[in-house]
Design goal:
- This protein is α+β, with helices and mostly antiparallel strands and 189 residues long.
- It has helices at 2-6, 24-37, 44-54, 127-138, 182-188; strands at residues 9-17, 20-21, 62-69, 86-93, 105-111, 143-147, 153-156, 163-165, 168-170.
- A 4-stranded antiparallel sheet has the order 2-1-3-4. Strands 5-6-7 form a 3-stranded mixed sheet.
- The mean pLDDT is 93.
């Protein structure tokens, strides 16, 4: 599968409370949009059914991850699939921590590339996040804070960032190579 071999795919992780995906339509819309940006055709209705089938119990809380890959393909990097996209789901049960505990961020020396197609989407190419988090934890921190080549704070390895100045809430612009996060959009709205 090209997702495993080349990181050729996208994913979405969402919060599930009492068996329901919070902001489900926004999550599915973004997942389908990110897949389309990579040239992967996936039907939103199929994603909706797939998400519903992945939650084991209608009263369950947890996190749902949906992954879409281009599917099997021939050798090489040219985006040629031999069939339909591959869909993978993973449900992790558990109560969400609310409010979320404070975390300590280490400034990463890995830069966020605003021009990279992978920077604005939840792609399977997460090596920078894995290495940045590994380095941050080794230094005694919880996560890594990434910056653009111009020195602007962009995001953490797993989340958008916000700053509060009095009554004003700010977040980096999408042009800085950040993911157009579901919670980011909800808060801005």
């Amino acid at each position: 599968d090209r997702g495993l071999m080349l990181g050729d795919g996208v994913f979405d992780t969402s919060l599930v409370v009492a068996g329901k995906v919070l902001l489900m339509e926004a999550h599915l819309e973004r997942l389908a949009k990110d897949a389309a940006a990579l040239g992967i055709d996936v039907d939103p209705g199929t994603l909706r059914s797939f998400a519903a089938d992945a939650i084991p119990d209608e009263a369950e809380d947890g996190a749902l991850r949906l992954t879409v890959t281009r599917g099997p393909g021939p050798r090489g990097v040219a985006p040629r699939a031999l069939g339909e996209a591959t869909l993978i789901s993973k449900f992790d049960p558990g109560k969400p921590a609310f409010p979320a505990p404070p975390i300590r961020l280490a400034c990463s020396d890995i830069l966020r590339n605003p021009s990279a197609p992978s920077s604005r989407r939840k792609t399977l190419s997460y090596t920078d996040a894995v290495i940045g988090t590994q380095r941050a934890k080794a230094a005694g921190f919880d996560d890594a804070l990434y910056f653009t080549p111009g020195g602007h704070a962009a995001c953490t390895s797993i989340a958008n960032i916000f700053g509060r100045f009095g009554e004003t809430l700010v977040t980096p612009p999408l042009e800085d190579g950040v993911v157009d996060g579901i919670m980011r959009a909800w808060l801005l709205k």
